[in-house]
Design brief:
Elements: H1 10-16, H2 23-38, H3 42-46, H4 49-54, H5 58-65, H6 71-83, E1 97-101, E2 110-114, H7 116-131, E3 147-150, E4 158-159, E5 164-166, H8 168-174, E6 184-185, H9 188-192, H10 196-206, E7 212-217, H11 219-233, E8 247-251, H12 256-263, E9 271-278, E10 281-285, E11 294-296, E12 302-308, E13 337-344, E14 351-361, E15 366-372, H13 386-400, E16 406-414, E17 417-425, H14 432-446, H15 448-453, E18 458-466, H16 468-477, H17 493-503
Parallel strand pairs: 1-5, 3-6, 3-7, 7-8, 8-9, 17-18
Antiparallel strand pairs: 1-2, 4-5, 9-10, 10-11, 11-15, 12-13, 13-14, 14-15, 16-17
Helix pairs in contact: 10-11, 12-13, 13-14
GO molecular function: acid-amino acid ligase activity
InterPro entries: GH3, GH3_C, GH3_M
GO cellular component, one term: cytoplasm
């Protein structure tokens, strides 16, 4: 039987704008709503939102008149004004909150505008997500009303001249609705703690006092927290402390590399639910058990566009070319990778968020995240995606019965040709040479381009095994500990320079 049966009154269903059958119509309605709200802003006036709204083909007119932006271009042209207190730039009113985000490759912080409209939209999506639990079968009903442990950034935000800045998870936790307060852990006091290690210690200290049914967060930091709880109280697994733990809501990074190690910490199976909550908005969530992908949010506060992720639309560095092919949701195909453009209720317009997605079910609008536009390896045409890497790591770790919670890959010149250098994190005993050969063989199996190039210009594969703590230490030295920070799967640029210094003991 279903977990619970909810028959919502029609008025509530309409208020929540629960999904209907036509994603194209939903998306055009969202676009009109965004354009109407922002038509009197500087951005709306420059790009003739009134004219777009009058067009019979509003989507195509929008694409014709409004250029594509990435963070650097939209910040330099528009968002920097909002930090100076200028109102009505890209969205009505003044921006009072900014999510600080460095992604997984940039060294300097990005200031992503957060508006009340965006937060309200996110909250509606969160409620919809909770309601989808009725689609899950044979899971413990009692766990629904237990505590929700949400481990994210500090809610103690930086106060600046006219605005606050901090981690999106911190901003969201700071604005937890009153009705959710009894369920929310670790509570306001611990959530405000800026020191990640101190926050972790406080959570471990309080753990036996809580009855947790849900844990929410990035897999690496959740796993670290659970390991510390098990170690502190000398128990076999986390269910000895939290017997009603039944759900892990995760996002931001593929869970597959973490799954084997994570399940060693459990006393019984739990349900994993994936979400796609970026600093720029709540984009997708898994809405049914055993789904292969996450359902895109098509009818709330984000307008989505899709750029085929290929050499016609992106250069060798992963930068988008001028005037790329851009598709709306009804024009996409299953099985192809697309870079995602979003327009949101916080004044992000045709914004290249940096993620690549693939439709697993077009009718249901279900996608998986396949990587980042900057996080892929194609030195000689091997077209190696993060999705390929994750699948190889998952398969090999299962075959060898080891846990590989972190890894990263570097492309480099080698004897007039090229090579890949893997750095694998595991605390299990493993033969590095066997690991290297197995990963290489699996990638040849799942990626034809990689197999071809391994016979020509991609001459060698190197692999080093490191303790997981080495990866965590590097993140600490980079100031990327806890919260939403993730270790980049492909190292390039400044991060690669710092990684090489770290391995030599020169980064302190």
């Amino acid at each position: 039987m279903a977990l619970f049966d909810i028959q919502l009154p029609l008025s509530i269903a309409r208020a929540l704008r629960l999904p209907q059958n036509d994603p194209r119509r939903q998306q055009l309605r969202v676009l009109k709503k965004l354009l109407r709200k922002a038509k009197f802003t500087e951005f709306g006036q420059k790009y003739r939102f009134d004219e777009i709204l009058m067009s019979r083909h509003i989507g195509k007119k929008f694409q014709e008149l409004v250029p594509i932006y990435n963070y650097n271009t939209i910040y330099e042209e528009w968002w920097h004004k909002t930090l100076e207190g200028v109102p009505d730039v890209c969205w009505p009113g003044k921006i009072k909150y900014y999510a600080l985000s460095s992604g997984t490759s940039e060294s300097s912080s990005k200031y992503i505008p957060i508006t009340n409209d965006l937060l309200a939209g996110n909250r509606v999506v969160m409620i919809k997500h909770i309601l989808t639990l009725r689609n899950y079968q044979d899971i413990p009903v009692r766990s629904i009303g237990k505590g929700w442990l949400m481990i994210g950034g500090s809610t103690a935000l930086q106060k600046n001249a006219g605005y606050y800045a901090g981690d999106l998870s911190g901003i969201t936790a700071k604005k937890v609705p009153f009705w959710f307060q009894p369920f929310y852990k670790p509570g306001r006091k611990i959530a405000r703690e800026k020191d990640w290690n101190k926050k972790l210690e406080d959570i471990v200290e309080k753990a036996p006092e809580w009855d947790i049914g849900f844990i929410v967060g990035v897999p690496a930091w959740i796993q670290m927290c659970i390991e510390k709880i098990i170690e502190r109280y000398e128990v076999e697994n986390i269910h000895d402390i939290w017997p009603h733990l039944a759900f892990f809501v995760h996002g931001g990074v593929s869970f597959e590399p973490y799954k084997k190690g994570f399940e060693k910490l459990l006393g019984k199976p739990i349900t994993y639910i994936e979400t796609y909550l970026a600093s720029e908005g709540f984009i997708a969530y898994q809405d049914r058990q055993y789904a292969k992908g996450m359902k895109l949010v098509t009818n709330e506060h984000i307008f989505l566009e899709f750029v085929p992720f290929d050499y016609k639309n992106f250069d060798d560095n992963g930068d988008i070319v001028p005037n790329p092919e851009t598709l709306m949701i009804h024009e996409v195909e299953e099985g192809k990778d697309y870079a995602l453009l979003i327009s949101t209720s916080a004044g992000a317009w045709r914004y290249l968020i940096g993620d690549t997605v693939r439709f697993t079910d077009k009718k249901r609008c279900e996608i998986i995240i396949t990587g980042r536009t900057k996080h892929f390896l194609s030195l000689v045409g091997e077209h190696l995606s993060v999705d390929n890497m994750n699948k190889a790591i998952q398969t090999v770790s299962e075959d060898l019965n080891i846990s590989i919670p972190e890894y990263t890959v570097v492309g480099k010149p080698y004897n007039n040709f090229f090579a890949h250098h893997w750095y694998i994190a595991t605390d299990d005993k493993v033969n590095a040479e066997e690991l290297r050969l197995r990963i290489d063989a699996k990638l040849k199996e799942i990626n034809d381009d990689y197999a071809v190039e391994r016979k020509s210009a991609l001459k060698e594969i190197f692999l080093d095994v490191l303790h997981e703590e080495r990866f965590m230490e590097f993140m600490r030295l980079k100031g990327k500990i806890g919260g939403q920070h993730k270790f980049p799967r492909v190292l390039k640029g400044r991060m690669l320079e710092d990684w090489n210094k770290f391995l030599k003991g020169e980064l302190v």
